[in-house]
Amino acid sequence: MLRNTAHLKGFAIRATDGELGTVDQLYFDDKTWAIRYLVVETGGWLGGRQVLISPISVVHADWEAERLDVALTKKQVENSPNIDTHQPVSRQHEAEYYGYYGYPYYWEGPYLWGPAFFPAGLAIPTYVSREALAEKIARELTDSHLRSTEAVAGYDIEAADGEIGHVDGFIVDDEAWAIRYIEVATRNWWPGKKVLVSPAWIERVSWADSKVSVGLSREAIQNAPEYTESMPITREYENRLYFHYGRPPYWLHQVEDEPPFATSGV
Q1: Quick check: is 261 in a domain?
Q2: 207 is in which domain, residue-wise?
Q3: Tens digits of residue pLDDT in 216-226
Q4: pTM
Q5: Is residue 197 within 8 Å of residue 157, measured between CB atoms?
């Protein structure tokens, strides 16, 4: 289902043997717009340390109880690589993190999550020797492309013919853990109206200027189906949205890109 990321803030994270803490913010990949990590405030039991939890470990989301269950123990999290969430997360830090938990790298493969389209497909840990892992980490020189949802909220949004408002939130697919829409508050032009824009329609993001440019006209955005946060986003609403903009829906690409089902001979 599609969920507003604002509702995730404060969610409890429950390990197999107790509470880990609460969700503070999310890190997403600015190339694919996939949510790569939940930044979790651990509170007193880890001295206030923040930790990263990958959606790979999420086994159940209880949206009514505002809780995510993860297939981790508190000891695993306590001993996980200490990553300073107040500094940019490097690819070597990510490689160390993935190696610790035994997850395949999401950046090695053709799909949204590397070898799988959904993070659940990476949940079975793999064993790599310490020597091989150290060698792989040392080779990871590419920069990560992680951005905080909290930092990007408030960015100006510019249409093809002028400014239209600002980023007010994000809509995430809780199966693929991908941002499907950016929530746009239209400010003074149409007071109170909010609309959704797909990351696929973004032409560029200026991180230095805190600005998102989309290849849509202000008129097209003005006449788009209105987004109401209190109402669920249905497939009927999404169809109207894509029909209005004349763009192909993301789920058509998803079907094309999904890995084939495994088969076995007898």
Answers
A1: no
A2: 153-254
A3: 998 998 889 99
A4: 0.86
A5: yes
**Residue 176 belongs to a domain with what CATH number?**
3.90.50.10
- 121-160 core/surface letters (b: 16 or more CB in 10 A; e: else): bbbeeeeeeeeebeebbeebeeebebbebeebbebbbbbe
Asked if residue 128 belongs to a domain, the reply is yes
Do 161 and 140 lie in one domain? The reply is: no
Specify if 260 maps to a domain.
no
Rounded distance between C-alpha atoms, residue 40 and residue 11, angstroms:
9
Same domain, 157 and 140: no
Q: Domain check: are 118 and 164 in the same one?
A: no
pLDDT digits (tens, 9 = 90+) for 85-141: 878 888 888 988 998 999 988 888 899 999 999 998 887 766 555 565 556 655 655
Q: Are residues 67 and 188 in the same domain?
A: no
